[in-house]
Amino acid sequence: MKRAERTRSALMAAGRRLFCARPVDAVTVDDIVQAAEVGKGSFYNHFPDREALVRAVTAEIRAGVERAVDHVNADVDDPARRVARACCVYLRFALDEPERAGVLVRVHSGHTSLEASLNRGLVDDVSKGLAAGRFRVATVEAGVLYVLGVMQIALTRIVREASPTLAVSLAQQMCALLLTGLRVPPAEAELIAAQASDDIVGAATLDAFPRL
C-alpha cells in the first residue's frame, strides 16, 4: 500500500472510531489526526474539512451494507421480502460491525433523499411494491422514509445492546411492523419477518455475505 493510501486509510479508521464514540460536533480535526497518528497537513491533503471525512466514512459504511443487501436479495423478487431482508442485514451488521454501525447511528443526516445513490435499491423496491399492489402508501417517498426511519430506530437499539437474542427478536418484531405499515396483510407480514430474521440475523455465520 502506498503512503498516501496508508494515510487515508488511517484517517478513515480514526474517523470511524471517533464518530462512533462521540457526536460529530465534538470531534475536531486535531482529534482525528492524533488518533490517526498523522500530521495535520496530511489530513488536508485528503479532505478539505471534517465534514468531508464524515461523508467519506458514512458512504463507505453504507456502501458495504448495501452490497450485503444486494447479495442476500439477489434471487428474491417479492418487494415485501426484499425490504424485510434488507432491514435484517442492517441489524445483523450492528452485531458484527458495532463500530461501523455506531457511526450510522450517530451520523444519519443526508441519507433521506430519493436521489441518493445508496437509496436506489430501496426506492426501486418500494416503487415496485406500489406498482404491484403489494404496498399501499401515499407515495414512494413516504414509503422510503418510513422504511429508513424504522431501520434507524432498530439499528440504534441493537447498537446500544448488541445481544444476538435481542437482535433476532427485535428484527422479527420490527420487520413485521414495517410490513404491516406498508399494508402487507398481518399474518403474511409476520411470516416474512420471521423467515428473514431467522435466515439473516439468526444465521450462525456470515459466510453467505460479501466481506464488509
Q: Could you give a quick summary of the protein structure above?
A:
The protein is mostly helical and 212 residues long. It is built from ten helices and no strands.
What features would you highlight for this structure?
disordered C terminus; mainly alpha; 0% strand; single chain; 212 residues
Proportion of beta-strand residues: under 5%
Task: Give a short account of the largest sheet.
Answer: none
Main structural class = mainly alpha
Order of helices and strands: HHHHHHHHHH
Low-confidence stretches: 208-212
N- and C-termini, Cα separation = 19 Å
Helical residue percent band: over 70%
Radius of gyration: 18 Å
- Give me the number of helical elements: 10
Q: What is the global morphology?
A: elongated
Secondary structure tally: strands = 0
Give the integer mean of the pLDDT values.
91
Topology:
Blueprint: H1 3-21, H2 29-36, H3 40-46, H4 50-72, H5 79-96, H6 98-106, H7 120-131, H8 140-160, H9 164-181, H10 186-201
Describe this structure in words.
The two termini are 19 Å apart. This protein has 212 residues and is mainly α. It is built from ten helices and no strands. The C terminus is likely disordered. The protein is elongated, with a radius of gyration of 18 Å. Helix 4 crosses helix 5 and helix 5 packs parallel to helix 10. Helix content is 71%, strand content 0%.
